[in-house]
User: Which sequence fits this backbone?
């Protein structure tokens, strides 16, 4: 058991009109405060794993970088609860005061505004996949969730192609998990223009925008989208799938990329 990730707690269970003394494994939630070019920006509540991927993906999602090389340095302090980040571009924290703190979970934070949505690129991809591909990939992602299976306390995101899941990562927040996937792709210089992004979490507007900014044509969730997410998906021609469970799913946009075989 990873000491920094999983914690065993003594608990009391109730079952059939009886209290039972027991132990339960819970996820360890930690703060990570980001300083960017000397300015304290924000604190994320995170699962303390794959932190370079998280930071890289978060900065890309916020438009502060476009590629991993735009980050000059990351130094972790105080048992990896503080990250001192130096980026190439000028950073002005006041630019974020007029933005909206969106519907994060697990203490994850994302800042979006109408400009983010307006500037999100339209997906031009003509890539198509058989419908059953999405159900198979989602099942594989769920089967390989390490921390969720032990605790039920994480979200999972994964990057896939036509053949397989390339990699998947977990965090306590759905935004964080998505940022980790994006961050690793930037670190490893993976072409995302024909890839599939899978997530266990709800699809809200900022989740769609994160994916759109990377040009990913497919976003697939086990959960539901919001109406704002559906509108953006249709406006920007991304294939959005929700409630992907078992042998079924709902298609909210981009159905022309999904084939029956």
Assistant:
């Amino acid at each position: 058991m990873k000491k920094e990730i999983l914690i065993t707690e003594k608990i009391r269970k109730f079952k059939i009109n009886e209290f039972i003394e027991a132990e339960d494994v819970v996820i360890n939630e930690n703060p990570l405060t980001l300083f960017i070019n000397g300015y304290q920006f924000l604190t994320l509540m995170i699962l303390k794993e794959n932190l370079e991927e998280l930071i890289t993906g978060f900065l890309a999602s916020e438009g502060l970088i476009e590629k991993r090389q735009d980050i000059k340095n990351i130094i972790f302090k105080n048992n990896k609860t503080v990250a001192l980040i130096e980026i190439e571009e000028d950073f002005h924290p006041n630019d974020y005061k007029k933005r909206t703190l969106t519907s994060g979970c697990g203490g994850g934070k994302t800042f979006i505004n109408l400009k983010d949505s307006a500037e999100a690129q339209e997906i031009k991809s003509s890539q198509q996949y058989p419908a059953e591909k999405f159900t198979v990939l989602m099942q594989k992602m769920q089967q390989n969730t390490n921390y969720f299976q032990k605790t039920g306390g994480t979200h999972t995101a994964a990057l896939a192609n036509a053949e397989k899941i390339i990699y998947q990562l977990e965090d306590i927040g759905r935004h964080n998990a998505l940022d980790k996937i994006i961050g690793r792709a930037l670190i490893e210089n993976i072409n995302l223009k024909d890839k599939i992004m899978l997530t266990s979490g709800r699809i809200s507007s900022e989740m769609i925008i994160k994916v759109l900014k990377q040009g990913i044509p497919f976003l697939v969730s086990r959960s539901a989208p919001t109406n704002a997410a559906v509108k953006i998906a249709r406006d920007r021609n991304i294939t959005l799938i929700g409630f992907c469970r078992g042998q079924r799913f709902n298609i909210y946009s981009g159905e022309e990329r999904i084939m029956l075989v």
